[in-house]
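QA checklist item 7 of 12: single-chain prediction sanity check.
[x] sequence parsed
[x] length recorded as 461
[x] structure emitted
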Amino acid sequence: MSEIIHLYHTNDLHSHFENWPRIDKFLKERRQLHQETGEEAIILDIGDHVDRWHPYTEGTLGKGNIDLLNEAGYQYVTIGNNEGITLPHDALDSLYDAAKFRVLAANIYYRDNERPEWALPYWIHTTLKGTKIAMIGLTAFFQKFYTAMGWELTEPFVELKAQLERVKTEADVIIILSHLGIHDDERMAEDFPEIDVILGAHTHHILHQGKLVNDTLLCGAGKYGFFVGQVEMTVNQEKRVSKKSAILYDTNDFSELEDERSWIEAMYQAGGETLQQVVVDLPESLENDWFKVSALTKILGEALREWSKADCTFLNAGLLLDGLPKGPVTKGDIHKICPHPINPCIVEVNGNELKEILMQSRNEEWPHIQVKGFGFRGKVMGVMHYDQIEFKETDNGIVKGILINGKKLHPDKSYKLAIPDMFTFGHFFPSIHRSNRKEYLLPEFLRDILSWKLKKLYPDA
């Protein structure tokens, strides 16, 4: 006798709780519906549910997100890079203490190569009708960041091959919870045809009806809770998948709940007592402007250079979303104006490389560019602020020389440049992106360094 199995999946919520009440209600109703019809329903999240831009997540260090997943009835999750490398080691190690679901993350280890108790490499889910479903979780291979946070990662495909060897004789169906991205998912389907379904994440891809590669069904439900995915599988008498299909439900099409707006607002107020702690009492307001260098941008630039013990630094004014008023300033106030999970980074460069990078940073189009991803949670890039970097220009604005710490930049000298780590990704600065002379300073975010500097500047305020 055949069996119908439903998989409901979300991914990359990034603590955007605007649609969470609708998702919660939808999943509970669907689970009840399938129970009444005798069909199996499994609810999964594919990582990056946690994002510290939101005060609720920041104030609870992600444990509030776990409460939401528990309440909604999730059964299996994997971790994304936001869980893995934006939480301090101990915070991730205790994140799932109260979880009522299983965490599947095959490629994360302690430094002694032991697995964390909370991270299972796989799980065999047995349905009421006896079908055995192997589920394997994999997270993005951000090895340098994980190492800096006290973890070790194995290469996902190497780990996957090892786990498939273990489960292929035990399981009738194989499902991958993949926080690797669409390109790795496509490669996975090519390399491991025994996989039935890959539930994808990380690259925020949207596959409305899924995508077949060989006979593996790839799925992806975008980001921010805009969609909930459903996979329906038919398993025949021989315990093989004879039919499978995917669909996405747009949560904007779900009915608005009576109290959802007040709930969403309450989440912003529910960051906890930690965000109410006063960091500094400012004797004056500190302004910020995205399109000209202002007091608070200068303070953040000094903080970045001093914390990193670098020769010089530059950063974009858009990292600060607002200024700070005169009077008591709390952790929540600083989180509000600097919500990004962005860390300091030191890049070692010679003078010629530094000159090239600095000239690229003067791109006149950048201040108005809307930046998405790379940890940035603001709106626009904003102007660049330079600390211990001075451009000597002609009357018509042509750069005729660069000073570092008041001295002429020497082409062969080695310099330590401190930058926000977002500049090491993507297309911003190709030479930085390619460099193997980068050191990421974790776990502190830019807002932590800003707090440190403000306390130094106003110790008696």
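[x] summary fact logged: The chain has a mean pLDDT of 94.
[ ] second reviewer sign-off
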